[in-house]
Structures are given as structure tokens and as C-alpha cells.
Amino acid sequence: MSIILISYDFYPNIGGVAQHVLNLGRFLSRNKNEVYVFTIRNSLNQKFFEYLEGVKIFRFFSPNISKIRGLFFLFQSSIFGFLFSLFKKIDIVHSHTIVPDSLVGLFLFSKRKIFTNHSSQFLELYDDKNKIFIRIIYKFIMKFYDFIIAPSEELKEKSIKFFNFKKDKVFFISNGVDVQRFRPINIKEKYNKKLEIFKFWNLDQRKYLIFCPRRLEPKNGVEFFVKAIQLLIKEEKNFWALISGNEYILSYANFIKNLIKELNLENYIFFTGSIPNEKIIDYYQASDIVVLPSLMEAVSISGLEALACGIPVIGTKVGGIPFIISDKENGLLVEPKNYYQIYESILYLIKNDKLRFDMSKKSRQLIENNFSWDKIVLKIESIYKK
User: Fold this and answer.
1) 327: DSSP letter
2) Entry pTM
């Protein structure tokens, strides 16, 4: 099949959608499909065209100004895509946001148009009845799409209701993980990686590494992780808590940083900023515990990557997180916003080495059996062929 993936968010960005589309393209290409990606470039120094692991990537220049970036991408990729699909037979157009990606898709000729509804912003819009114009635009665009893929049951059910799609046109397919890259390591390798990370950031050596791979925006609930660490230091001090992710919403990022100062946690919590996907594997493998304090989430790619590395995950009972964490089996589930439960869960895992080891084996087994990209891509291809 000839497939165009449209994604405003793409490699080398480190977000979940960017990684999803990169892996989808790579594994579709491995299955002998002809795969193209339409995305942006923020710099003229980046190439317009590149070839990456079998995927042909077209990058359209968009200045790094939030209010006009999408318009630049929409205008250029729509014209190019119209002409491209006029002369090149395209079987599938697969978009990954409604605006601008799915709007671009309207201008392309193809046998099928498919949308993957990744966005937690959609969940916010679903509950916000005041944004009438945006809701009308979204529903209008989706009238031209054949199928919707949702990476959580919640997104599936709400997509059916919001877009008035028939149930047999909306499919739940989880995010996936590359199990060859994200894998467990032995105790000695973990110890050495932990030392390397502490040394890289000029942090003193400590026994435990607690990792929170969340970008700084309210829906990720990072403040509840911070408050849990405040309670934890009363029982255990031999650890570093690392938070990775960009300052997606600056006001929220400043709130978190000020909270850490107010609670005198600067000697226990450290920000790494954004970590490239090829490097973040080291952080998962070096970690003892990964925490996802989210208030809203699909099937978390960060959670899948941590589990693939054999790391117990503490996650909230929201969205798709309970789909990948079985409480007391491969991790622990807590109520959203309940920082006391997060604290209790971290302490419980720290004090139970055998439990962490048992959870590690179950985590890896779960991913290999259900969430490897080899299996996920076959499910997506089956929808392409419907």
C-alpha cells in the first residue's frame, strides 16, 4: 500500500504523537508498504526531504511562532499534497490531529482517510460546550474521514458520540513500543547507567532513581508527584526524583519550580528538560520506579516504554493507564490528585525489592504479548484494508 502519514508533531520532537508516527512509519515500511510523512521543519537548515528507515519524509517550513506555525504548514502541505496525490496513487491518508493534520488530508486524493485521535485536548473540548465554533469545525472535517482509531477506550467512546460515527467505524488500538530498543538490563548495567546519569547532571550518587517522564502541563499532574516526594523524604532520603519533559505551558512550569522551592525539595527533585527518545531509554533502564501522575491520559507511551524496560509503574486510574497497569501485578494504581497514595506506593515499592523484581518480569511479558509494534502495526494495517 501507498500511505501518507500527516503529523504536525514528528521526530526529532520527543512527544508521544511524534514517537507514535515515527514508529508507525518504520514498521509499516518493514511490512513492504510505501510510506510518506508530511510534517514541519522549524529551521531552513533542515532538509525539505529526507529518507529515514524506509520512510520518505517531506518537511514544510513553519516559523517557530505558535499562532502562525499551523497556518504555514496547512497552506504548504495542502498544495503539495494535492499535486502529489494527483500524480501518485495513494491508498491511505492517515492524520494524527484534527487541525491542522486532518484538515490537510481533505486536500489529498486517496482511497481511505483515517484519523487517530491521540489528543487529550480533544477530551477537554468534549467537556467544553462553550467552544461551539471549534466543535462545528472538528465535526465537519471528520465527515470526510472513513475511520477513527483511538488509543484508549475512553477516546473511542467519546469519538463515537462527538463525531456521530457508527461504532463499526471507530477502533481502539493501543499505542505500541519497540521491544527491541526498549528492553530490560541486568543489575550491574542498571547500577552503571544510574551512575552515568547522576554524573552527567552533577548529582551526588544515591541508591534509588524515581523517574517522572511528564512534560509540564496541568493535565499531567506533576504537582502531585512533587507533593508525594515531600512526604517521602520523611521516610527515605537516599534517592533522586528526576522529572523530564519540556515546559509545554510556561506558567505551569514556573508554578512547579516555585512549589519545589517552597517545599525545600531542590536537593531531591531535578529537572532534566526534554530528553531525546534515543537517550530516554537509558533513564527508564536506570530507574527503580516510574510515576505517571496524570489527570488525563490515553494509553501512555511513556508507561509502555517503562514497562518494556521492566520497570514497575505507578499510575493514576485515568484513561488508558489501567489498561496497561494491573494493580499489584506489574505496577500500582492510585486515584488522580491523591499525592498521599503516590507517596505510599513509592515507599511500598522501595521497601520491597522482591516485589519490584517480580513486577519487572510481568511488565516485560505484558508488553511482548500485547503492545509490541510488530503486533500493533498489523492491527492498523487491517483497518487500512477494510
Assistant:
1) B
2) 0.90
